[in-house]
Amino acid sequence: MKIQVQRVSKSFTADGRRTPALVDIDLDVADRELICLLGPSGCGKSTLLNIVAGFLEPTSGTILVDGRPVTGPGADRGVVFQEYVLFPWLTVQGNVEFGLTLKGVPADERRRIARRYLELVGLVQHAQKFPVQLSGGMKQRVAIARALANAPSIILMDEPFGALDAQTREILQEELGRIQRVEHKTILFVTHSIREAVYLADRVVVMTSAPGRIKQIFAIKLPETRDRFAPEFTQYESEITRVVKEEVAKVHE
């Protein structure tokens, strides 16, 4: 397995009170698999992603990547956040090259790698622009290109399309699907959107209301190129919606 989450729990302490965020999470993610984490607000989806990224330590349990314990952030895991986190003083190309520069990759090689991934996300013609000149969707494409340029085997995505308008969001979902068919990364993707999860995922992991546990896992047996209006798509969407609504209702009890 590429990622193994073994009996992971996480609690936070504030004002002397201990609050559990995750309880006994077990999840195996295969190489090249795209998993979507879905559930009510506050269920611990982003917390779990940050533990896999190495930004947070679990209170108990273990995360393994390629059989090795995660002890902190690593070059094998690229992260794309909802906020674009681009450097405003660097051009699009400079942002994509940033991690390669830190690694000491020679300039010619950096330019070649950056160009490849800017072509992949359709931004070559915007390489010399600055982030302030880009739309939200274009900024997120830059963030994806930057993550890919560092050649991680795993991409961790925390609601990367959540701040975008509906039309741009669908376009980037399609782009991510196309990129995944080329790059074959292992992707852990946090979303609030059931429709997005069904469109992208090999499996959808539904989490309970806080504290987060795994409630149910759906294997999405649809073609790689998916039709959002196909009856099979709608059936998955309906089944997952029913399960998520059970947990959302608990939040408001």
Q: Describe it for me?
A:
With 253 residues, the chain is of the alpha/beta class. It is 37% helix and 25% strand. The protein has 7 helices and 10 strands. The chain has a 6-stranded mixed sheet, with helices on both faces. A 4-stranded antiparallel sheet has the order 2-1-4-5, covered by helices on one side. A hairpin with a 2-residue loop joins strand 4 and strand 5. The chain is globular and about 55 Å long. The protein starts with a strand and ends with a helix.
Cα gyration radius (Å): 18 Å
Trace the largest sheet across and list its strands.
Answer: 6-7-8-3-9-10
Summarize model confidence as the mean pLDDT.
95
| Low-confidence blocks of residues | none
Q: Shape, please?
A: globular
How many β-strand stretches? 10
- Tell me the distance between the termini: 38 Å
Fraction in beta strands: 15-25%
The number of helical runs is 7
* Structural classification: alpha/beta
Q: Can you summarize the main beta sheet?
A: 6 strands, mixed
The run of helices and strands is: EEEHEEEHHHEHEHEEH
Question: Helicity level, as a percent range?
Answer: 25-40%
Which descriptors would you attach to this protein?
7 helices; alpha/beta; 253 residues; single chain
Would you summarize the structure shown here?
The protein is of the alpha/beta class and 253 residues long.
List the helices and strands and how they pair.
Elements: E1 3-14, E2 17-29, E3 34-38, H1 45-53, E4 60-65, E5 68-69, E6 77-80, H2 92-102, H3 107-120, H4 136-149, E7 154-158, H5 166-183, E8 186-190, H6 194-200, E9 203-207, E10 214-219, H7 231-251
Parallel strand pairs: 3-8, 3-9, 6-7, 7-8
Antiparallel strand pairs: 1-2, 1-4, 4-5, 9-10
